[in-house]
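2024-03-11 09:14:02 DEBUG pipeline.ingest accepted 1 chain
2024-03-11 09:14:02 DEBUG pipeline.ingest length=232
2024-03-11 09:14:03 DEBUG pipeline.predict start
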Amino acid sequence: MQLIKATLVLLAATAEAHYHFSNIGVSSPEWSTGRRPKNAQDNGPVTDLNSIDMRCNQASASAKNVFAVAAGAKMPVYYNQGPWHQGPYQVYMARVPEGKSVLNWDGAGQVWFKVFSAGGYTGGCKYSNGNYCFPDKWDKPIAVTLPGSLPAGDYLVRAEHLALHIANQPQFYIGCGQVTVTVGGSGTPGPLVAFPGAYKQGDKSIFNNFNYPKPVNYSPPGPPVWTGNDTV
């Protein structure tokens, strides 16, 4: 009986340590603007860098709604619980091509650019509210300020947390949502990357023993954040 009880407690703790990104722009109802993944119940991570799930997890084709926001405004990114593990949070966007719909476009190809990156790895909780471990002094949601020169149009938003608590076994918590930029600028977002493909096996910012020795400096994987300046 004791063994069974201990196993159930362990399973509950394991599931509780997982999380997902559920919405862009609005907090509820869950999956209003966020694409619900097939594994939403267990909140499991993506561990294979070559998997198509690196793009939008196991997401369904669409969410019911699209969040409207102007370039230069804040775009809240909501997750359901946590974060429980140390590691960087990053947010990417991809503009929906002409003739395609934000409701069913899958974000394939070299189309993603980074608009947010925060929280490195310092070998432990930098900030805590008693239950959760935060990489910086912000709670949920993550408030992403869009570049003022972001062109108007429809976009997929890809939110990612890279958990680095197990040596050389990275866990990616990923979710995608639907956004329309109502008033925009004339910038040229970039550099553009593809998922899968942007992250490589052996990348030291992904594969390493971050617990020992604890890193002094850490740079997250992927391209630099696009701040609104045109790329060359």
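2024-03-11 09:14:41 DEBUG pipeline.report The domain at 18-181 is CATH 2.70.50.70 (Coagulation Factor XIII; Chain A, domain 1).
2024-03-11 09:14:41 DEBUG pipeline.predict end
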